[in-house]
Design a protein that fits this description.
Blueprint: H1 9-13, H2 21-47, E1 87-99, E2 102-109, E3 120-124, E4 130-134, E5 148-155, H3 163-170, E6 176-183, E7 194-199, H4 203-216, E8 220-226, H5 235-242, H6 251-255, E9 256-260, H7 261-264, H8 269-274, E10 281-285, H9 288-297, E11 306-310, E12 331-335, E13 340-344, H10 350-357, E14 375-380, E15 383-384, H11 392-395, E16 398-400, E17 405-406, E18 412-414
Parallel strand pairs: 7-8, 7-10, 8-9, 10-11, 12-18
Antiparallel strand pairs: 1-2, 1-6, 2-5, 3-4, 3-6, 12-13, 14-16, 14-18, 15-17
């Protein structure tokens, strides 16, 4: 039986001994407990910003959790979840001028995701702008045991939107830069023969394809056009791949046609396409007039060539644009995971409305419906698709919020 404790009566007559001590102990205990709980909650919310909703292995949309961390120098990049590119912080290990107005950047990191010919990266510039650039190095370089790397090349566009100028002026050896991807909307399909058509900087996605076809022993030809030989990146490498240069007799000369427009004029696209073997896959990347001309001249028929193109600018006349159309209606968008509802006025894009009213850091790039950075999953509602990128299958459950809208003003529900 526990012994009882008797408090001397004198303590009550003369007032309690140290009257503030028990109260101080209580305050310190409560404060300490609150501090522990606060720190635990901060750690929990940092792991999942939408807590107590379920955490996701990789954010489905917007800027990844890791992208907001300052510096990031002490974090090793990790591969993204399958099917959804993550954000990586890479170091510019080498910067080389590979043609007039063209710089190649070699970006190094650890445990880089693998890629295939035709893939590109989303490059997040120091200003926060996002631009897409094709990977033009060797896919094997990304998965080397001693550290991986990606290589991309960027031509300075004087009258562009400013992304290429920022690359040329701000990204130097030693700079740390954020990338997302790789993503591939221009994959090299297995075919019995290939005809590659590249215009200027359009050689960047084509070059890894040529290497792959050469290594596999699949017949290929390349028509490479540019303003001048000095302006054409990687020209020496493609001449070497072709076996002696464009002017050489034999296999090399037959496989490669180089057209420097300041000397040779316009390329003869009709002749190149007419000589394509049956079932040839034609891969074309370059200025819009070049790609349109190839499409117009493509021979028809069941055994005719199939055309694959990649654009980093919207096609002329394509629907879209951040300001919408004259007959647009206002509508509401529910952001299911965020728990917010956004009103999208007529003449304002879904992207702009969400960034202004709910998610200011939501990632985007082109605002013209061709890059895919702002693609979001649709949970409910009828979409008026105005992009130049998504396939019919992708349009079944997603949209590009920079240009597409709700049909007839009906509400949308997005997985955001």
């Amino acid at each position: 039986m526990p012994a009882s404790v008797r408090v001397p009566s004198s303590a009550g007559r003369g007032g309690p001994l140290r009257p503030g001590l028990p109260r101080l102990r209580t305050v310190l205990t409560v404060a300490g407990t609150a501090l522990v709980v606060q720190r635990a909650l901060r750690r929990r919310i940092r792991r999942s910003p939408l807590w107590p909703l379920p955490a996701l292995e990789q954010p489905i949309s917007g800027r990844g959790r890791d992208a907001a961390r300052a510096g990031g120098r002490d974090r090793d990049p990790t591969p993204p979840a399958p099917g959804r590119p993550g954000a990586l912080r890479l170091r510019v290990a080498e910067r080389t001028e590979v043609a007039d107005g063209v710089v190649a950047l070699r970006l190094e990191g650890e445990r880089l995701p693998a890629w295939e010919p035709g893939a590109h990266l989303d490059l997040v510039l120091p200003s926060g702008a996002v631009r897409q650039y094709s990977l033009c190095g060797e896919p094997a370089d990304a998965v080397r045991a001693d550290g991986g790397s990606y290589t991309l090349a960027v031509r300075l566009i004087g009258d562009g939107r400013g992304g290429s100028r920022e690359v040329h002026e701000a990204l130097r050896a030693g700079t740390t830069v954020e990338v997302r991807g790789p993503r591939n909307r221009f994959p090299l399909e297995d075919r019995p023969a290939y005809l590659f058509v590249a215009g200027g900087i359009g050689i960047t996605p084509i070059l890894p394809m040529v290497r792959r076809a050469e290594a596999a022993g699949v017949p290929w030809r390349l028509l490479y056009a540019g303003r001048s030989r000095a302006s054409m990146p990687f020209l020496a490498e493609v001449e070497k791949l072709a076996g002696g240069g464009a002017g050489a007799a034999g296999a090399g000369g037959a496989r490669l046609t180089v057209v420097a427009e300041d000397v040779d004029g316009r390329p003869d696209l009709a002749a190149a396409l007419a000589d394509a073997p049956p079932h040839t896959a034609v891969y074309c990347c370059g200025p819009e007039p070049l790609m349109d001309a190839v499409a117009d001249l493509l021979p028809a028929g069941p055994a005719g060539p199939t055309l694959h193109t990649e654009r980093f600018a919207p096609a002329a006349g394509a629907a879209g644009g951040a300001n919408g159309a004259a007959d647009d209606e206002a509508f509401e968008v529910e952001l299911r995971r965020t728990g917010r509802t956004v009103t999208v006025p007529a003449g304002t894009s879904v992207l702009r409305a969400i960034r202004e009213q709910a998610l200011p850091d939501l990632a985007y790039s082109c605002e013209e419906g061709f890059c895919g950075t702002c693609q979001q999953r649709v949970l409910a509602g009828e979409v008026d698709h105005r992009d130049a990128l998504l396939t019919d299958a992708e349009r079944d459950d997603s949209l590009l919020i920079c240009v597409s809208r709700a049909r007839r003003g009906s509400p949308l529900v997005l997985d955001l």
